[in-house]
Write a structure and sequence with these properties.
259 residues; alpha+beta; 3-stranded antiparallel β-sheet; 9 helices; 12% strand
């Protein structure tokens, strides 16, 4: 169960800039900690599906992991699977991919532009943070978004909507920034998460928010979506399926539906 979040994550990292099987785990710090996941996918391809591209394998493992994680939460995420993605030629060097960082405030428009999502789909895709957690050795941040990080429930939205969050600095060799935490807990929300619920700016060398508690912040235009998903897990799952498919399929050109 603990490996599921990484398989979902690798799908996202591969599809930023185009699902092409080229995840640079050596030169791109945004992929720090994912080498073992890429190695697993390569072995899976070689052992079970050598006819598929690595991009197809990333999409398959991410899709099936997300569906299984939803089942662990007694839910269902419907994501049809297609094949036909083409791998880039990594022998000629990896493409320079600018992966979104947790300090961004334009999460929804970024995902809309990248994957052609609606606002509700973009928020739902961020709900994948219900799986897994942040690790200092990878991103510089530490904590989990959900109390059950091995299952795809709506805890990410419940936590965000109901938590008494305060801004906390994170200073280490991987990051010098600020995120949101809840006192006496291991829960975490990045700016990329919290900016979907609250309106604020960041400034200074450490991305310090203009409001440091929830009471000081006004609601963001997308706050109602957070509250909707917090109230209804099925509604979250129903939006997530099409969002994830758009992410891994792109415009669908050259793909063949198989399942």
């Amino acid at each position: 169960m603990t490996f599921l979040p990484r398989l979902v994550q690798i799908s996202f990292h591969d599809c930023v800039g185009g699902c092409d099987g080229c995840v640079d785990t050596e030169g791109n710090p945004g992929n720090r900690g994912l080498k073992s996941t890429v190695d697993f996918a390569r072995k899976f391809k070689n052992d079970y599906a050598p006819q598929l591209s690595l991009a197809d394998i990333f999409a398959l493992l991410g899709t099936e992991s997300l569906k299984q994680a939803a089942r662990f939460a007694n839910g269902t995420v419907d994501i049809p699977y297609s094949i036909g993605r083409r791998d880039c030629n990594s022998a000629q060097g990896f493409p320079n991919r600018h992966l979104p960082h947790g300090t961004i405030l334009n999460t929804i428009p970024l995902l809309q532009d990248e994957f052609g999502l609606t606002a509700r789909e973009a928020v739902a895709l961020m709900g994948c943070h219900s799986l897994g957690g942040a690790h200092t050795s990878r991103s510089g941040f530490a904590g989990t978004w959900d109390g059950h990080p091995g299952r795809l429930d709506n805890g990410f939205f419940l936590n965000m909507a109901s938590g008494d969050w305060v801004a906390k600095p994170f200073r280490n060799r991987f990051v010098n920034s600020t995120a949101w935490t809840r006192p006496d807990s291991n829960f975490l929300m990045l700016h990329a998460d919290m900016s979907m619920l609250k309106n604020y700016d960041v400034s200074g060398p450490f991305d310090e928010p203009s409001c440091t508690t929830m009471d000081e912040c006004t609601d963001a235009p997308s706050a109602h979506i957070i509250f909707d998903f917090a109230r209804n897990q099925k509604e979250f799952h129903d939006e997530l399926g099409p969002a994830f498919r758009k992410m891994v399929d792109g415009n669908g050109a050259g793909l063949t539906l198989v399942a």
